[in-house]
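Issue: ligand-bound run for zinc ion - logging full I/O for the record.

Environment: standard queue, default settings, no custom constraints.

Inputs:
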Amino acid sequence: MDFLPENETPKKKKGFNSYWLFAILIIGLLATQFLSLNFQTKPTSEDEFFGRFLPNNDVAKIAIVNKEAVEVYIKAESLKTKKEFSDIKQTKLGTPNKGPHYSFEIVSIETFKQRFDEEQKKYTDRKSIPYTIEYRKGILDIVGWLLPILLLVGVWMFLMRRATGGMGGGGGQIFNIGKSKANLYDKDTKVNVTFDDVAGLDEAKEEVKEVVDFLKNPKKYTALGAKIPKGVLLVGPPGTGKTLLAKAMAGEAQVPFFSISGSDFVEMFVGVGASRVRDLFKQAREKAPCIIFIDEIDAVGRARGKNMMQSNDERESTLNQLLVEMDGFSGDKGIIMLAATNRPDVLDSALLRPGRFDRQISIDKPDQKGREQIFRVHLKKLTQIGPDVSPEKLASLTPGFAGAEIANVCNEAALIAARKEKTQVEISDFNDAIDRSIGGLEKKNKIISPQEKEIIAYHEAGHAVCGWYLEHAHPLLKVTIIPRGIAALGYAQYLPKEQYLYRTEQLMDEICMTLGGRAAEEITFNKISTGAQNDLQRITQLSYAMVTVYGMNEKVGNVSFYDPQNENVFTKPYSDDTAKVIDEEVRKLIELAYKRTLQLLTEKREELDKIAKALLDKEILFKSDLEDIIGKRAFDEEAPAVAIEID
Ligand code: ADP
Ligand code: ZN
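Outputs:
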């Protein structure tokens, strides 16, 4: 959704690769090992030292190392002249071996010193041999303390890579993890969306205009002491232009626009979400007046502590921080919060309290007129359009589409036209794009036997006939037996009337129409198939709703067991006896509807046959085709809003 460039500079400092550290360490180890080989002392023993080197006067000096070994330095003279030392005269590299030349282990420094002194007394003519006592750290000791440090550094680097890797969070620094990931559009990356780019949504635009006016001219409002809303919640299904509207507000008011998704706050690290919120508001305060837009706010704003089984401390602390920050600024500072969600019902009620998101604007899927306007906006982007293309026509072909889908259809149609090497985008390309958008690609190569095809044709014809002759059924748009997607072998598309209240007869007609597929199969083939599974599922839901939610059943009475907060209940809010009655009544209802459907289709058998045959022939029938075959529909039809499909 955020297709504008991010504000962070994309150039990433090339981080120091931790693998190099380990490579250097290993090379270093090998090198010291190799070097020390050159000075390696030859092993000898205490007895040989006192029995041979000392009597022969070959010893220049000794070093007692770490109280456990003695290193012997042979006199340079002896090295030069005596044959027995010829193999240690030089190092492997050819330089004179300065020693130590021999070494041996001792048990205790005291006993050795004692013996050393005593043995020397035998040679009164010589100077006593100098000795040193040394304490040395071996390579292993160094590695012993270096390695853990290196390991720590390595792990740290790894974590920091994980934390910021690929998110463009700036230079791979662990310190950035608590920074907000909001995209900022300000003076340099200006929002150039205006209200003109937002088609339809007239009421919503009207509502937010006041906010825009405030952002442009806050003094006018504050002078009169008017309270401006801090938070506006945009409620509506995805793709309906919520982000677009928020962006247009920033564009109209010419203020910076922070855009972030609720899910961006939630990370695996504890406390990160809260600190991101803090950082976001810190940035926003610096840029005020400005707009902060949080998409999918339900990702952080879900009601707290409802679910005992899996409490989410991290999300809750993020939400708490958000509430704290929202309370922290007063509206006249010029920070306006906008948030979008499709599920206002799951939001924590604290978010919706006065002073927070206390204003809600609902943004619904567009109706015919709205779609027309949206098409107009997006058709402008296509440079070559055929004369047969009009926004009105396209809008009537796309009931139920949201703005995002319309934008997609326009782009897709252009792609299809280009693929066919056309010089302009024609209505057929739009038709293909719409079909693709509706049901996935046409499965041209899906193999269906002729018998199956006949069954499908009668099934769909059954739906169509029922819809045609039942007064309250939705008007048909088209019926087809071209398989689409994986599940549907064919489908009938209807245009439901725009209405919010349904009467019992209407729901009954709808059930009958949905049963029309199976009933047609039974009448023509005296057999039923699995093709009606989807239909049956729909009517089961609908009839249960009639009985238990809408209070449309006499026996069960005027009760409604609907609880939106508690959809997956383990315990039903009614007794077992009531449950039994409900089940019985639902069965009766469906049975009644099925009988009625069978009766209707038996009466209209001729029409059923005609439509089925036409379907087998043409595979797709539009409303006008049906009118040609069986005459005009007898009932009034109103403008459609959203299409429904029945398999
Ligand atoms: P939402 O935030 O509601 O999920 P968006 O605002 O991201 O939807 O819409 C996605 C795209 O769909 C937009 O960028 C725009 O191209 C198109 N669109 C959606 N609604 C409209 C509209 N009312 N007018 C024009 N274009 C729209
Ligand atoms: Zn069906």
